[in-house]
Specification:
With 740 residues, the chain is α+β, with helices and mostly antiparallel strands. The protein has a domain of 338 residues: YVTN repeat-like/Quinoprotein amine dehydrogenase (Methylamine Dehydrogenase, Chain H), CATH 2.130.10. The protein is built from 12 helices and 33 strands. The strands form 9 sheets. The protein has a 5-stranded antiparallel sheet with strand order 10-11-12-14-13. A 4-stranded antiparallel sheet has the order 5-33-32-31, with no helix packed on it. Strands 6-7-8-9 form a 4-stranded antiparallel sheet, with no helix packed on it. A hairpin with an 8-residue loop joins strand 10 and strand 11. The radius of gyration is 55 Å and the shape is elongated. The N and C termini lie far apart (118 Å). One of its GO terms (molecular function) is ribonucleoprotein complex binding. This is Ribosome biogenesis protein BOP1. Its main location: nucleus.
């Protein structure tokens, strides 16, 4: 029947001309039959030859390519005619009597008698022929499905947006009862019956108005006593045999009563219960058994000041009373003034009682109820298991020798590669050479200024000492030890031939005069700026110098064999404190105030930047293996870096109480030492393992004291013996000390 209704509309739209009203179909009156009514014949405008695909052209989903204006006009005229016809059917003419049936009433009776005449095979809207297909499949397409001929059924050209909906809401009084049909894409206005049905369903009522949920119940069984029973079924066997399940339940309950698991109900005690206001809560109480229960804090017990007759020492004087009144309430030790009364009857009511009770309630309910979980741990377990110091021997334990002779504080010292001689520089303007074994001063070389740094050349075949004095570095041949080594050193220095065209250098190399050569001076390197440190490379040919000047020329590198000087940096990174050569790789470590930078000399690039997290770096030392770096700072921190692990400190040691002045590694033993202004030298065991998965073991083993403080300065430099577990220290008291 769906096709019949659609064909009628199509024929009506196709047969009507623009501007003319389509003829209304005439309904011939028929006599109503008792057995039923014949089916309604199709309208005069219908054509049975039209297919369903042709009918789909006039559905609510037009093809955007078709001429839809004529179809819309025909559909509107046909809808107007059908609505007019329905209105004429529902309204009865005033002149018609009730007894004579009219043709329209006969047709209505025919429709009432046969309700399946115009029923559709499916319950979908007749204007949509896409079938029972989920419309979500076509959300991203311009069409909504296909007709029977395979042509697309397009969506409406324009869907109403929010602005159209708002205008429709303002203009249309029936907007609240208008819904959108998803199958056709058109708006449908609900009738009053449909609105009433929706409201009944929203209120939880039945959809049918005529349904009464409170109808009287039908009594299927009468209350009269009948002669014969309703069912004459014999009783079951289990009705007169004891139940085994109940027997098992009873036995369980009896066992629970015997074991005391089930207690009889005790009568309630009507006597009131009193409790101590200041007593601690019972942990076995109901609240105490709660896992996260936090007991309320108790009030402090009243003291002598709260007494109505306090002792005389608790009564304030006039001055104390005035001072108490002038203070802020938060600054007062007591929030009341103690007073004396002859008896309890004379004590008036406490004026701040309600206020204090209110503050107590606020304290109770605003108290943070977070339990601080305490872990019962033995304090000994928190200390790491370190080996005993006697298992880490050998290391220096006592003072063996004192080297006396300088008249002012000794700033620096250096040990010869063989360990037989010791060089020291002092503020008295001299460099002294000592014999290590006997503490005898072998030679004194006056240099005419404060000696900032002394460095013995690490090559055993060269006998040369670099001394930093003011703005120059002096190269001395102390002429100690093997004469062949002394002679080869002078021959090495004299074998240099200057180039024809000398290049511009940041430093000047000057030969020593005859008088200076008698003292032992061989070369003088002038820089024009004060020199603070001079250190040799491990092979003994290169030397790094730190200048006390801002800019990129703070660090200079000198080559002894070719007498060349160069500045390795284009720009400066803060004030340089110390420099050191890597013992194995072509690296240069530069320590500024807040960081230590590691440069690759061959690639000429920055490799790493270490952050010691201290205020001012004072000293620097590199492990003989080259993978660990030690830094001392003026804020009494000793920082150990593991270069393979991180750029952050592996360990920060705070053993000293004052500023650190010097740190040093032993070239053979796993030892390192630090000297501080507190006058002590702390020797630590620092074992570095070949296994990369095992961290270094750092254990302080000994505190060596012997230097006296002078001008708030203590130990200014430390150095280890190259072969023995001995340590040398230079102090502000003008002495050098050997600890063995």
């Amino acid at each position: 029947m769906a096709g019949t209704r659609g064909v009628g509309r199509e024929a009506a739209a196709a047969g009507s001309l623009p501007g003319k009203r389509p003829p209304e179909p005439e309904l011939e009156p028929e006599e109503p039959s008792l057995l039923g009514a014949p089916g309604l014949s199709p309208g005069p405008g219908s054509d049975p030859g039209l297919s369903d695909s042709e009918e789909s052209v006039f559905s609510g989903l037009e093809d955007p390519g078709s001429d839809s204006s004529e179809a819309d006009a025909a559909a509107e005229e046909e809808d107007g005619a059908s609505s007019h016809e329905q209105h004429s059917r529902t309204e009865k003419p005033p002149g018609q009597q009730a007894g004579t049936p009219s043709p329209r009433t006969e047709v209505a009776s025919v429709r009432f008698e046969d309700e399946y005449v115009e029923d559709s095979s499916d319950e979908e809207d007749i204007r949509n022929t896409v079938g029972n297909v989920p419309l979500e499949w076509y959300d991203d397409f311009p069409h909504v499905g296909y007709d029977l001929d395979g042509r697309r059924i397009y969506k409406p050209l324009r869907t109403p947006d929010e602005l159209d909906q708002f205008l429709d809401k303002m203009d249309n009084p029936d907007y609240w009862r208008t819904v959108r049909d998803r199958m056709t894409g058109h708006s449908v206005q609900l009738t009053d019956e449909q609105v009433a049905l929706v409201r009944r369903l929203q209120r939880g009522q039945f959809g049918d108005v005529s349904f009464n949920p409170y109808e009287p119940a039908v009594d299927f069984f009468s209350g009269d006593l009948m002669i014969h029973p309703v069912t004459n079924r014999p009783a079951d066997k289990r009705s007169f045999i004891p139940s085994l399940v109940e027997k098992e339940k009873v036995s369980r309950m009896v066992h629970a009563i015997k074991m005391g698991w089930i207690q009889p109900r005790r009568p309630r005690d009507s006597t009131p219960s009193f409790y101590d206001l200041w007593a601690q809560e019972d942990p076995d109480a109901v609240l105490g058994r709660h896992k996260m229960h936090v007991p309320a804090p108790k009030l402090a017990l009243p003291g002598h000041a709260e007494s109505y007759n306090p002792p005389p020492e608790y009564l304030p004087s006039e001055e104390e009373r005035m001072a108490w009144e002038q203070r802020e309430p938060d600054e007062r030790r007591l929030n009341f003034l103690p007073r004396r009364f002859p008896s309890l009857r004379a004590v008036p009511a406490y004026s701040r009682f309600i206020q204090e009770r209110f503050e107590r309630c606020l304290d109770l309910y605003l108290c943070p109820r977070q339990r601080k979980m305490r872990v019962n741990v033995d304090p000994e377990d928190l200390i790491p298991r370190l080996p005993r110091p006697r298992d880490l021997q050998p290391f220096p334990t006592c003072q063996a020798l004192v080297y006396r002779g300088h008249s002012d504080l000794v700033r620096c010292l250096s040990v010869s590669p063989g360990g037989q001689w010791l060089a020291s520089g002092s503020d008295d303007g001299s460099v002294r050479l000592w014999e290590v074994a006997s503490a005898r001063c072998v030679r004194t070389v006056p240099v005419g200024g404060v000696v900032k740094s002394v460095a013995w050349n690490p090559r055993p075949t060269v006998c040369l000492v670099a001394v930093a004095v003011e703005d120059a570095v002096l190269l001395l041949n102390p002429a100690l030890g093997d004469r062949l080594v002394v002679g080869s050193t002078d021959q090495l220095l004299s074998a240099f031939t200057p180039p024809v065209e000398p290049a511009a250098q940041p430093a000047h190399w000057l030969e020593a005069s005859e008088e200076e050569r008698r003292v032992g001076l061989r070369l003088r390197i002038c820089h024009g700026k004060p020199v603070t440190q001079a250190t040799w490379h491990g092979r003994g040919d290169y030397m790094a110098v730190v200048l006390a000047t801002p800019g990129r020329s703070q660090v200079l590198i000198h080559q002894l064999s070719r007498r060349r000087s160069q500045s390795p940096f284009r720009r400066g990174h803060g004030q340089v404190q110390r420099v050191a050569f890597h013992p194995v790789r072509p690296f240069l470590l530069v320590a500024s105030q807040r960081s230590v930078r590691l440069y690759h000399l061959l690639r000429q690039e920055l490799t790493k930047k270490l952050t010691p997290n201290c205020k001012w770096v004072s000293s620097l030392a590199v492990h003989p293996a080259g993978d660990n770096v030690l830094c001392g700072s003026y804020d009494s921190k000793l920082v150990w870096f593991d270069l393979d692990l991180s750029t952050r400190p592996y360990r920060v040691l705070r053993h000293h109480k004052k500023a650190l002045r010097a740190v040093a590694f032993h070239p053979r033993y796993p030892l390192f030492a630090s000297g501080s202004d507190d006058g002590s030298v702390i020797v630590c065991h620092g074992m570095v393992y070949n296994d990369l998965l095992q961290n270094p073991l750092l254990v302080p083993v000994k505190v060596l004291k012997g230097h006296s403080l002078t001008k708030d300065l203590g130990v200014l430099d430390v150095a280890f013996h190259p072969t023995q577990p001995w340590v040398f220290s230079a102090g502000a008291d003008g002495t050098l000390r050997l600890f063995t």
